[in-house]
């Protein structure tokens, strides 16, 4: 199996790279700086022939380049996010995640029909529990709705997360019959993973997965360690039963210690 990771040098993406390599999975890592990535991940990637590092700006890639990189991949994970500084929060590209997801989806659909794919490519988008899943009927309090509306206006990254998930829901929906889930004729399926407030624990711990938030993302947030989020995403990729359970959904992940 080969997995393409966008945002592989980020705080969560780098942990996902480590987990996948430990699990014997081939990884194509897209990073802005190859040298910085190698230096930061030296003990995990030294002489590791399972890892291919691609130095590139995903938004600057041509469709042909991205389609070529996707050849042979069974899964794509986006851990892209905006840097938490003025430039990252307020300057271009304000729709980094959305535009990247759109490009990836388009490139997957452009893979030649005779490519050796027996199953749709799995696309995992790391998002946020502050993104309300309206299609699942999720409700929040008036006060939380007001705060989210203000965040949407004041902080472009929040709107970007919403738009990226909305794009997948709108353009790559799946249909269901009364007996079984029927796959639309498409080359991709998706899951949007929503962690709560992220922490930097070093080891995988017990965590729980829910279809929707069980806490207020604004007024009573839980915690999700980045390594747990990475672990869940790696399991989605590897475990087809788990994938079928959550595909076309937006599961929320919490560290078990913060559920109650």
TrEMBL record:
Pfam families: NAD_binding_10. It comes from Catenovulum maritimum. Residues 7-239 form the NAD(P)-binding domain. InterPro entries: NAD(P)-bd_dom, NAD(P)-bd_dom_sf. It comes from the Bacteria. This is NAD-dependent epimerase/dehydratase.
């Amino acid at each position: 199996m080969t997995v393409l990771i966008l945002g592989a040098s980020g705080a969560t993406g780098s942990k996902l790279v480590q987990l996948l390599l430990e699990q014997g999975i081939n990884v194509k890592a897209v990073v802005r700086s190859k040298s910085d990535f190698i230096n930061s991940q030296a003990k995990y990637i030294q002489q590791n022939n399972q890892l291919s590092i691609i130095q590139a700006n995903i938004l600057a890639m041509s469709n042909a380049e991205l389609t070529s990189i996707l050849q042979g991949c069974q899964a794509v994970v986006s851990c892209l996010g905006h840097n938490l500084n003025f430039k990252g929060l307020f300057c271009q590209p304000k729709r980094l995640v959305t535009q990247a997801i759109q490009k990836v989806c388009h490139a997957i659909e452009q893979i030649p029909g005779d490519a050796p794919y027996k199953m749709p490519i799995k696309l995992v988008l790391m998002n946020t529990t502050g993104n309300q899943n309206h299609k699942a009927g999720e409700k929040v309090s008036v006060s939380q709705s007001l705060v989210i509306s203000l965040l949407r206006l004041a902080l472009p990254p929040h709107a970007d997360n919403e738009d990226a998930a909305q794009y997948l829901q709108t353009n790559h929906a799946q249909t269901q019959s009364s007996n079984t889930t029927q796959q639309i004729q498409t080359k991709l399926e998706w899951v949007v993973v929503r962690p709560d407030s992220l922490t930097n624990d070093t080891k995988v711990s017990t965590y729980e997965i829910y279809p929707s938030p069980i806490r207020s993302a604004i007024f009573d947030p839980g915690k999700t360690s980045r390594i747990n989020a990475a672990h869940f995403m790696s399991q989605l990729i590897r475990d087809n039963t788990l994938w079928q359970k959550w595909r076309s959904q937006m599961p929320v992940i919490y560290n078990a210690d913060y559920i109650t």
